[in-house]
Amino acid sequence: xxxxxRKEKSILTFPADREIALETNNLQVYYGDNHAMxxxxxxFPRYSITALIxxxxxxKSTYLxxxxxxxxxxxxxxxxxxxRGLDVxxxxxxxxxxxxxxxMVFQRPNPFAKxxxxxxxxxxxxxxxxxxxxIDGIVESSLKQAALWDEVKDDLKRSALALSGGQQQRxxxxxxxxxxxxxxxMDEPASALDPISTHKLEMTLNDLKxxxxxxxxxxxxxxxxRLSDYTAFMHMGKIVEFDTxxxxxxxxxxxxxxxxxxxxxx
Length: 266
Ligand SMILES: Nc1ncnc2c1ncn2[C@@H]1O[C@H](COP(=O)(O)OP(=O)(O)OP(=O)(O)O)[C@@H](O)[C@H]1O
What we know:
The protein is of the alpha/beta class. The chain has one domain (2-109, 181-261): P-loop containing nucleotide triphosphate hydrolases (Rossmann fold, 3-Layer(aba) Sandwich). 39% of the residues lie in helices and 25% in strands. The chain contains eleven helices and ten strands. It has helices spanning 2-13, 60-67, 95-101, 116-126, 132-145, 149-152, 165-177, 195-208, 221-227, 245-250, 255-261, and strands at 20-31, 34-45, 49-54, 76-83, 86-87, 102-105, 183-187, 213-217, 230-235, 238-244. Strands 6-7-8-3-9-10 form a six-stranded mixed sheet, with helices on both faces. Strands 2-1-4-5 form a four-stranded antiparallel sheet, with helices on one face. Helix 4 (116-126) packs across helix 5, helix 5 packs across helix 7 and helix 7 runs parallel beside helix 8 (195-208). The longest helix has 14 residues, at 132-145. The protein is globular, with a radius of gyration of 19 Å. The protein starts with a helix and ends in a 5-residue tail after the last helix. Residues 31, 34, 36, 54, 56-62, 74 line the site of adenosine-5'-triphosphate.
């Protein structure tokens, strides 16, 4: 019943010109006997922000982390994760290369204990880029894209650890962007930030969706409704509903979604 509804809605949700950046088909994630994610099938439209919402323990991080195989060695993952015609889960996939295309920003900023410049240049050198002017160009462009350049350009040698939490998070975004990803996965990236830094981060993400596909886990309903184009609501390891954010928040198809977004849950 739900499936049929969703298929009908998906025709409305995805205009023919909206390309799909990533999709999962019947994704299952098991932590031992705990079947933490069940039959997750979703398509993420390119150049848009999709929010994953749901109560604590509903499986949002589990699902997100599976998308670039952060659950390898932690959980068993079955089903397909299709990216550019390739199953991300296939044995032959080079995980490090794949993660350059499908990058991740974590809940707490995790800069290296290095200078601002070296936070970005170090991974580039590891990738084999040696040309200093090329590296300088990437450092500048990724810091600009992450809306941090103006705040740090005069002292790139400063330790990243001396930046504020919000600046550190934007530096981590810049570090991901320097890898030229297609997709950015974000697990509650604003949860450790104050309201002003959160606002800056949201403005940054809003600009980034012109060039990247962003999938973000958030506990904040306000953030999901402000920021995202699409929203998936999860409950007890299942995707209950996926639609435009507007529909999820104003006209959800499923009662459970309505209860959750209106705060009448539990
Ligand atoms: N590393 C792990 N090992 C074992 N079980 C885990 C692990 N991570 C998550 N789980 C289990 O998987 C289920 C989903 O957890 P998950 O963290 O994905 O939910 P969530 O919706 O992201 O929650 P939260 O909003 O609290 O972060 C829970 O039952 C949790 O206990």
